[in-house]
Amino acid sequence: MDKDLLTEKEIEEHQQNKQLTSAELADLFSNYMGDSLFSCMFEHFLQVVQDDEIKDFVKFALEVSRRHVKEIQGIFETENIPIPVGFGEQDIRKDAPRLFSDMFMAFYIVQMASASIVIYGNAYSCTTRQDIMKYFRNCTNDSAEIYERGVHLLLSKGMDPSFPTIPYAKKVDFVEKKSFISIITGRDRPLTANEIKHLQYNINTNILGKSLMLGFSQVASSSKIRKYFQKGAELSGNQIKNFSDHLMNQDLPAPKLMDAHITDSTTSPFSDKLMMYHGSLAGDIAVQNFGAALSQMLRHDLSAEFIKLISLIGKYNNDGLNMMIEHGWFEEPYTAPDRKALSKSSEGNQS
Fold this sequence. Notes:
Blueprint: H1 3-14, H2 22-48, H3 52-78, H4 102-125, H5 130-156, H6 193-219, H7 223-248, H8 272-294, H9 300-327, H10 339-350
């Protein structure tokens, strides 16, 4: 047996009675909810996709998500932890017509894989139990493989997801003036490569988010939920415009919208519960992306813009969370014990 594998096995045996930490519980729960949702999305895609190459890609992504769900179920069963409800057959309508085009399906999977690489990397870095470290390391590799296959597929289909290019530097320079980061004069200087990267990345995620929210707004069962998705599409549209303006002001290209890839179907392939949770997931990813962008923005006007967006999207997410709670759709994550409540309960038992 390979020495590294032997060491890993010995560590797992040594840790077999080690309880899962709060971080491991949190990430496994979130992963279960996410991959059970993606399994439903991919099942619908597989039922309606027409392009053979995209069909194979969807099938591969579905197999990965189902495997993740099954592996987490095994971990929870071993630990005697109740398995979350998540999402399943009850959240898919198998006879529903397609809501999105084949190209959108491929783009969707690529964007979800891109986000998953970051999420799994964070989960892995907060893990100490060997079997859970191994699980999240494998999940990261799975997402990387999906992303790579998806990018090559998009390119072969004529859709280039590449970020803008800029000329290579001819010499090393140091910033000499504070105006480089000024909120007033700094906005007139060229964007840094890092600023371009994060603007483009957030345009891509909002292109996906806008189309997703528009599609969901066509098929949701109540006017309140439809309006919520319409609001989400509007927010994404505003962000796409603002971020794209920054790029185009520097004579850099901005990517095209995917709205034309939404069909005119008004029959939902998914339950309202699934679509609302997906909206919440998209909002959480957006806030995470804004935080990452904020840490890399040297221009104060761009920093101010992302700070404003974090607050704006945070409120939108909170509104969606309240709606899910009202409908009984929000599955409570694992929480620490309420010691005060336990103390009061104990007093009552003693009396």
